[in-house]
Amino acid sequence: MNLWSSFSSSSVKEWESKIKKDLKVSSIEDLNWKTSYGSINPIAKTNSQLSIQKTSKLNEICWRFDNENCSNNEILNHLSNGVNSINVNSQKFKESLFKNVMNDIIYNNIIIDYSLNEYDLAQWTDWINSNNLKGTLRIDPFSCIFKNSYKENLDYNINLIKLAHKTIDKNSFKCLYLDGSIYGDLLYDSDVELAHITAQLNEIIECYNSASIQVPDKLVIKVSLSADFMQEAAKIRALKAVVFQILKVHNLNLELQIECDYKETLLSPVNKEINLLRITTAFIVAIISKVNSIELKDSMCIHEGDYWKKILTNIPLILLEESLLNINEDVISGAHLFEQICSKMAQKSWEYFQSIEKMGGFLNYSSKGKLTEIIEKQQNKKLNYIKNNNHKIVGFNCFNENNEDLNFGIEPKLPFSLKDFA
After folding, report:
1. How far apart are CA 197 and CA 286, in angstroms?
2. Which of 347, 367, 331, 293 is nearest to 87 (CA)?
3. Which residues of 223-251 are buried (b: 16+ CB within 10 A; e: fewer)?
4. How far apart are CA 109 and CA 116, in angstroms?
5. Residue of 129, 209, 229 whose CA lies nearest to 174
6. Which among 181, 152, 156 has a CA at the least distance from the CA of 64?
7. Which of 282, 274, 288, 285 is nearest to 296 (CA)?
8. Are 83 and 296 in contact (CB under 8 A)?
9. Are the CB atoms for 381 and 390 separated by under 8 Å?
């Protein structure tokens, strides 16, 4: 039985006439969205879809531990709140850190950078080798890219990677790691953000090849999300497409794992409770986009104290356990508007990536000052959009009774945060 047989079909022209009449617009083009990666027609039918490989469901809810909160007590508290993964960031190994921690049933992700030495690395690899653990040891060679002595630190990081891969017995802990989350706060346009992540990935692979380091079977990329549902979901999908294209060029077949956190610069310092809705929206995007992990951290809490850390942890827990979002099916694949945004974003970011490659690759691009230049342009664009309400942030520059108290006259540091103007 065809339920639609009782209805007469309408042509595209008839639909367009109906839309123009109901919305009182002279042209369908008046409805198009203007983006940095092209004009998006919200009523157009799209037959093309990005080709992406199958990726995993969300497995890890992580908490980040760094200089401010890395202690045994903090780890135990967050594990009791429900996280199943710990991200230990640039910390020296201490046996006491894991007292009463059942590391064998959680994910243990150890992030190493140029601030640690070879002895520190050896202590972590010894711990990994001597215990039945799951997780990753992560070293992004370009974690130093915004430091004055980044070339020396880059060489140092490469040597750490080479040493780590020689000394780690567990291949499952080896990964090629790229922390692209910084670009989420530095760069405003999603296509520009993706282009720089792609360029950095290509440069990292080149660094591995130059140093005769075997590329591991796992690729971990960290990105930041905002509450812009359609754009951020499209960004994750476009990221997968361009990453798999890079891997194809290098003849690599790697397992891609994506980790997401929230763009802290877009957390409002006023009407903070609305930030919970922003973070929830971003985590919904992460789950339906089939990322591997979500990273939580102290600075994402709307207030201080253990209670608010638990509230933050409950957001992804409830989404996973009660929303039925974490399923095998790709629930957004084939949606015409979504696929149109994905395709145009991926194409534009790929073109930008190619322009970076024509300058000699990411490292030369950065050393010529082009990275600093684009960051300044993107930060100015972001600031103007927020000041002029082109980018509306509910509770901050929109539906804020104290909107006049915002001080946009100051000269913020880069990357600026909304809290700089409150």
Report:
1. 18
2. 293
3. bbbbbbebbbbbbbbbbbbbbbebbeeee
4. 16
5. 129
6. 181
7. 282
8. yes
9. no
Do residues 63 and 297 lie in contact, with contact meaning Cβ atoms separated by under 8 Å? yes
For residue 300, CA distances in Å to 83, 192, 313, 353 come to 15, 25, 10, 31
3-state SS string over 87-146? Answer: EEECCCCCHHHHCCCCHHHCEEEEECCCCCCHHHHHHHHHHHHCCCCEEEEECCCCCCCC
Structure tokens, 290: 């089939």
Residue carrying the six token digits 């990994």 = 128
How far apart (Å, rounded) are the C-alpha atoms in residues 130 and 143?
Answer: 28
What single-letter amino acid sits at 13? K
Contact between residue 349 and residue 187 where contact means Cβ atoms under 8 Å apart: no
pLDDT digits (tens, 9 = 90+) for 328-356: 777 787 788 889 999 999 999 999 999 99
DSSP 3-state of 191: helix
Alpha-carbon gap, residue 163 to 155, rounded angstroms: 12
What is d(CA 346, CA 241) in angstroms, rounded to the nearest whole number?
Answer: 7
The rounded distance, in Å, linking the Cα atoms of 93 and 73 is 16
243, 196 Cβ separation under 8 angstroms: no
Give φ, ψ of 136 to 5 degrees: -145, 150
Alpha-carbon torsion 122, 127, 131, 135, what sign? negative
Q: Which amino acid, 129?
A: N
Is residue 263's pLDDT more than 80? yes
Q: Which residue has the higher pLDDT, 215 or 402?
A: 215
Confidence band of 3 (pLDDT split at 50, 70, 90): low
Question: Who has greater pLDDT, 128 or 402?
Answer: 128
pLDDT for residue 45? 78
Q: Are strands 107-111 and 38-40 parallel, antiparallel or unpaired?
A: unpaired
Q: Which amino acid is at 207?
A: C
Residue 155: both structure tokens together: 């060489």
| Pair of tokens at residue 171 | 């291949």
CA-based angle 5:8:10, to the nearest 5? 130
Peptide bond into 415 cis (omega under 30): yes
CA-based end-to-end distance of the chain: 60
